[in-house]
């Protein structure tokens, strides 16, 4: 029988990648070989990032996904386990390599990224079944689009049927989402590029983000939150909308800020915070994350988030 931490669990159904990061003075031209200055392998994947974000804030978190039976799979599992994430739902797939993201970053901060999904691309109904066996009413489910969409939709439908709050981060962006997806999601959290793709609204400021968020609610989601980086976030429900300003911090690295936001949002709502307070908390988690380089390495502990919120409320 699956053990179930109290009072509720945040489940993450999604991707685990190893990020292979090369630093170079400039990005190479086609056919060109250049010398790099630094190389790192760091755990990533939007699913794993969100799991680490939530567990660092004190939540009980369980991950469902796939890694390969190779040199990258075990370190990814080990990093999640060290962080405190329950990894019993992560399958080791002997038929595919672990997902990787090959990233080149130049001295001006521009990058090129090649993502090879590997085992992430084989997430299927069998993984949905493993997830469903772990769900209880009152739990939360975090979803992203780095695993196949049919499995994401099946997971959302199954979770909704069991009284689980479904929070979906529609990244990477896609415009081919069926109507059933929106009806299965409680909270949808696109950034401005993703919101533009899904709605046809050119999201560039708070009014256009509000229009896009309302459009998403009309398509069936209960709550739409459009993340706008340094402009904060816009939230729409059936009967109202509001703007959450960004917390004024000096950004060092915005990688995985959206994952930090979603992890924070799930934690806040699972603890019973009202929507406005939960969005402010999630914004503080994202703000804390951009002050530290890296993806999972930047996910903040609860004390850092609390300190940021205290400062923000005294502004």
Describe the structure using short key phrases:
315 residues; alpha/beta; UDP-N-acetylmuramoyl-L-alanine:D-glutamate ligase; four-stranded mixed beta sheet; 10 helices; 13 strands; globular; disordered N terminus
Folded structure, characterized:
This protein has a domain at 9-16 and 47-90 and 118-168 and 247-313: Ribokinase (UDP-N-acetylmuramoyl-L-alanine:D-glutamate ligase, 3-Layer(aba) Sandwich). It contains 10 helices and 13 strands. By secondary structure, the protein is of the alpha/beta class. The longest helix is centred in the C-terminal third of the chain and has 16 residues, at 275-290. The chain has helices spanning 46-56, 73-83, 125-132, 149-161, 179-184, 192-199, 206-218, 257-270, 275-290, 302-313; strands at 9-13, 17-23, 38-44, 60-68, 86-93, 99-105, 111-116, 140-143, 165-168, 187-188, 223-227, 233-236, 241-244. The relative contact order is 0.13. Helix 1 packs across helix 8 (257-270) and helix 8 runs antiparallel to helix 9 (275-290). It is globular and about 55 Å long. A 9-stranded mixed beta sheet has the order 5-4-1-8-9-10-11-12-13, sandwiched between helices. A 4-stranded mixed beta sheet has the order 3-2-6-7. The N and C termini lie far apart (49 Å).
Output the CATH class name of the domain at 9-16 and 47-90 and 118-168 and 247-313: Alpha Beta
Overall pLDDT confidence: 93
The unreliable regions are 1-6
Strand content: 15-25%
CATH superfamily of the domain at 9-16 and 47-90 and 118-168 and 247-313: Ribokinase
CATH architecture of the domain at 9-16 and 47-90 and 118-168 and 247-313: 3-Layer(aba) Sandwich
Task: Specify the overall morphology.
Answer: globular
| Amount of helix | 25-40%
Measure the end-to-end span: 49 Å
CATH topology of the domain at 9-16 and 47-90 and 118-168 and 247-313: UDP-N-acetylmuramoyl-L-alanine:D-glutamate ligase
Which strands sit side by side, in order, in the main sheet? 5-4-1-8-9-10-11-12-13
Give the SSE string: EEEHEHEEEHEHEHEHHEEEHHH
**Sheet with most strands:** 9 strands, mixed
């Amino acid at each position: 029988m699956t053990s179930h931490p109290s009072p509720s669990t945040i489940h993450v159904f999604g991707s685990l990648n190893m990020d292979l990061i090369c630093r170079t003075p400039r990005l190479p031209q086609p056919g060109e070989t250049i010398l790099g200055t630094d190389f790192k392998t760091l755990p990533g994947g939007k699913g794993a990032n969100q799991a680490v974000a939530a567990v660092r804030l004190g939540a009980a978190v369980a991950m469902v996904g796939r890694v390969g039976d190779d040199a990258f799979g075990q370190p990814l599992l080990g990093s999640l386990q060290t962080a405190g994430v329950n990894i019993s739902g992560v399958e080791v797939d002997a038929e595919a390599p672990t997902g990787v993201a090959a990233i080149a970053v130049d001295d001006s901060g521009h990058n090129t990224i090649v993502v090879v999904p590997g085992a992430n691309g084989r997430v299927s109904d069998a993984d949905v079944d493993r997830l469903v066996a772990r769900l209880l009413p009152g739990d939360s489910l975090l979803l992203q689009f780095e695993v196949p969409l049919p499995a994401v939709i099946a997971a959302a439908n199954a979770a909704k049927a069991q009284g689980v709050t479904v929070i979906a981060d529609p990244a990477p962006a896609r415009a081919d989402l069926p109507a059933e997806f929106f009806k299965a999601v409680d909270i949808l959290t696109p950034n401005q590029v993703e919101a533009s793709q899904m709605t046809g609204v050119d999201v560039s400021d708070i009014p256009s983000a509000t229009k896009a968020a309302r459009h998403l609610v009309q398509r069936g989601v209960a709550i739409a939150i459009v993340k706008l980086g340094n402009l904060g976030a816009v939230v729409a429900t059936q009967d109202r909308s509001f703007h959450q300003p960004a917390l004024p911090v000096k950004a060092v690295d915005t990688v995985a800020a959206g994952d930090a936001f979603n992890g924070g949002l799930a934690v806040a709502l699972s603890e019973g915070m009202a929507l406005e307070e939960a969005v402010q908390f999630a914004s503080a988690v994202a703000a804390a994350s951009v002050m530290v380089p890296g993806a999972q390495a930047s996910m903040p502990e609860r004390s850092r988030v609390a300190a940021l919120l205290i400062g923000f409320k005294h502004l």
